[in-house]
Specification:
Structural class: alpha+beta
Radius of gyration: 23 Å
CATH class of the largest domain: Alpha Beta
Number of helices: 10
Shape: globular
Largest sheet: 6 strands, mixed
Helix content: 25-40%
Strand order of the largest sheet: 4-3-2-1-5-6
CATH architecture of the largest domain: Alpha-Beta Complex
Number of strands: 20
Length: about 375
Amino acid sequence: MAAPTALLQERIERVQQALKEGPNAPMLVTDPANVGWLTGIPEDFQKDARMLIGPDKAVFVTDGRYENRIPEVPGMDRYIWGTKHMHQYPELKELLEGAKKLVVDTRGLPIDIYERLPQMLDVEEVVAPPGFLDRLRMVKGITELELIREAVKIQIGAFRYMVDEWLPANRTSKTDMDFMEQLVEKGMELGAEGVSFEPLVAMDQDADTPHPDMTRAPRPLKDGTVMLVDWGFTYKGVCTDTTRMIVMGADELPAIFQGMRLLQEKWFQAVEDELLPGKKASDGGNAYVVGMKAAGIDKPFHGAGHGTGGAYVHELPKVSGLAEGLEDYGIPFGQAIVLEPGMIVTNEPGMYEKGVGAYRTENMVLITEGGREILDKDLPLEPFFVK
């Protein structure tokens, strides 16, 4: 299920509008991730593709090996290089149509090529405005937001099925890996095209680290266990990311997890309070750090969240702590980015206890003009008790 042309057109047009309002010059896009964001092509193709986008035109550039895989996007032309020069960049000169200024996306562009672009393309000036495409990727377009909302419904529907139907029927006969496989299968059945990342499904001590070993042998599901589930789906060029807790065969959390929950919920609310337009992403991360230190924990287990929802599950900005006096350097570091309406970030502080397990929940938070919207609010944050 490829990204719909309406989404790709929206992204390209947003770049074109930004070029008109800013440098008013064509842009060479070389970062594979940005090429994928603009065209929907898969990762194996991205490294051999480029985009040349002007204020009023867009050209997909690749070589003849991929000619049959070039996406059909209205308003986007195609160019196959290799017939006039042994290297692709000098050949692009004719596409610039005499432009004397070029904007470049430097990630994916070797420094020696960057230094020689003016000579190769006969331009007088090459500029690389920091974070030009990063900022556009962070702020979601109208079509993109509509698709993300659809994807979140799939996310919620798959999990609801697992806790309402599958687990009650299978919790004493299946394994954690069976749960993971069935969760993915249900998401695909509901319309997902794949997973945003390998789901993390871990019980008790298996979950005592933010990234548990998912290559381990399957563990039988059993009553009294506490399971962390972190999952996400890809859908029509966008993605999701959510975490919830499940308690099997009991009416309440084991005592040690109750204490972990109390701490985590305080941290979670403290982070959410900072996820507002005009705030720095690091404000949310710092709230997590302050809460942990108040509980006697010196080192954060992980960041409090990250940008998400677009073409890739982990994006800018980073909702991570930034110590006072420490320079952030802006993009690509990402903590000090100011939150704007249209950005989506996760809120996911967690409490981890070595040899015991974890308590962590995660929401997708849309920054709005008036504050924030919890996109997956229809899935309660409270632990799910399954009998």
